[in-house]
Amino acid sequence: MSFARILMGCAAPVALAGCAAGGLTGTAPVTPGQAAPISASERQQGSQARTGILNEYNGAYTKGPTSYVTRVGQRIATQSGLSSNPDAFTVTILDSPVDNAFATPGGYVYVTRGLLALMNDEAELAAVLGHEVAHVAARHSQKRQQAAQRNSIFGALGQVLAGAVLGDSGFGQLLGRAAGTGSQLATLGYSRSQESQADQLGVDYLKTAGYDTDALASMLTSLSDQQQLDQRISGNTRSVPAWASTHPESGQRVSAALAEAQQLGGTDQPRDRDAYLSAINGLLYGDDPDNGVIDGRDFLHPKLGIAFTIPQGAQMQNSAQAVTVSGQNMQAQFGMGQYSGDLANYVQKVLQSLGGDGANLPAAQIQRTTINGFPTAYTQTRANTQSGAVDVSVFAYEASNSGAYHFVVLTPAGQGLGAAQGMVQSFRKLSSAQAAKIKPKYVRIVTVKSGDTASSIAQRMAFDDYKLERFNVLNGIPDGATLRTGDKVKIVTY
Fold first, then answer.
1. What is the CA radius of gyration of the chain?
2. For the LysM domain, which residue ranges apply (predicted)?
């Protein structure tokens, strides 16, 4: 059972006078390429965060483009001044389908395979990693330690999606305790000025490394297009990924990145598209069936043989710890735990895991029923958070003598299960035939032949809907654009 669409964050369209000019509110001047060297304490800090990051993002993806991504990441990271030695930087692909990248103090740089699939050339990869390294070079994390205390990976999600219900991050903090939070360095909520500074430094790194300086702008455009497509597919146009939630809209950021590139020059430097596409050919795309897959509103886990359906308009994300569900006036988490054979005791343990400084969970009466053949125990109680009172519901299902599954549902006080009523009732067994149909998807690189169009190639995409739209966004192709014979493009197939 990867979530947290934190990504790089959007930056304010400030005047592009150069990062060393000191014109960015809340940031100290940083001369490109002259960052203070990595200290021993920073290396220790990054090393300590690494275990939690790997755990929460399904570990490292060690197939395919690993050495290639490492080489590109080290090349761009050395432009920062943190170290001139490429080996001072540890670059890791995370085995997660979400669009995410970040760096932590100490020379640790991370990018998910989900984001790699969206990139279209080596320059875009360098742009993303350069932006993240720039946060480290400018010591932004040290300036945001208070934010780190409340923005664990799940806490950040809660702050964005559940904070709208209750006004601050208390709602997300309560539920975050159930998942086991960590990796705080990876999910800092950077300020607008810090994001802008990282963009500016990142564009400078592109030039000194010999990459097209427009690459950051084109990558940001793809991210914006992907966000809009995700909203169309989910039917939830109000949803906003965490990287975009507290910053200006992406069009402003693209304009700022383009202006910075024009000022610095280097817009005609290489992008190395063919090398990049060759490296990611065969990359695992989307969810790994071994960890469960998201199919529209359904979560399906062929290995465990279980499934459930989320409410209309809600969104879910899958991580190593849990599946998170966010909807209007509702946030939920689905997970599993060790089971001793006493379902009531299991529910009590889940409730205990939610308690802490931000919540006061009184004892609650546990009731029993059967849902789709599963013995079920459930309870509801009222919790006090920093934001006010919330209703907390726990539904636990007995799968066998050795395992149990559960939902934790949070809603504003007085709403009970709210929109989650149908979800907790939908927990069900997945038949062998249904499980057998769930197969992994991969990125494949194909060459455009004479007579091919975007529409004809898109029919080969391993999706039931939005084939053309998915193909265009995946390849950064504007709607209605004509493909040229001999061009290489990405498709997603089984």
1. 23
2. 444-491
